[in-house]
Amino acid sequence: MEESKLEKRYTIGEFRKLSGLTARTLQYYDEIGILTARRTAGGHRYYQEQDLSTLQKIVSFKFLGFSLGDIANFIHKDIWNEKDSLIFQHDLMKRKREQLNDVIRLLTLAIDQMEKGGILHTDIFISMINHVQMEDHHKSWMKSLVPAPYVDELFNRVKSNQEEIEKKAMNLFSRIKEMAFSDPTSRAVEQLVTELMEPATEVAGDDLERLEKLFATDLEGDPWLFPYPFSPEEEKWLEQVMMYYSEKEKIESGEA
Asked: For 103-117, what is the mean pLDDT?
């Protein structure tokens, strides 16, 4: 047979350069059977041109978010009738896009704060990023404590004004860190407490006190879900401050 009629072969090194993948990745794809190398009579591994087409399918499926297990099932199909899988990936990619938009918004907010001379506290930023990453888990956790429709309503209220809420939160949390361990009775701390309660009241409304008690109890069993933006010492100081003004409010209203 003439050489021109033979399908072109690629050594492992040649195929790796063409694909941009590492030798270890190619070996792993071989091991799980989604891109299997052939072997010469002497035992040397090689690929053919048709393997480039298979690789393009793998890359495309991975870009769409499919697992390697799913890809193994899809890879050799000429006609794809997996409508439910497409719908699932469509919804998943939309959710990822929303999360990316949220992260970009937080990064922009952080950059803006630093450009204005503010300090970006790592704990605060990580806490806010966590909220984006774990939003679905936060919803599930809250729905285990209060009715699902109410949880959805709370999150919708936040979404409708999320950028403004995040801007206020980053600013307030930063000021709390800067003022930590100050005299709780000072005018500056009192003003800070007032500002801190405003966004919470806007979102939770009349249910704020009930939710605070409920979450304060149950959060102890799920601390990994909500990393605190404050150190234990700062948190203890803040609890003392909030308790002081809560008691003060009761006295002034005649409830004490």
From this structure: 89
